[in-house]
Amino acid sequence: xxxxxxxxxxAAALVSMxxxxxxxxxxxxxxxxxxxxxxxxxxxxxxxxxxxxxRGRS
Length: 58
Hints:
elongated, single chain, 3 helices
């Protein structure tokens, strides 16, 4: 099941994606691409920290 921290990670990725789309369509494609790179990075860090948390339990 998802915990509160998972929702924060997903919300951060969603906000980053929305900001990226906003920047892209408002004429700043370079900034839109830069912010768009954050989405997989945020999700990757979230998965990494979740793995560390479950690894410490066993």
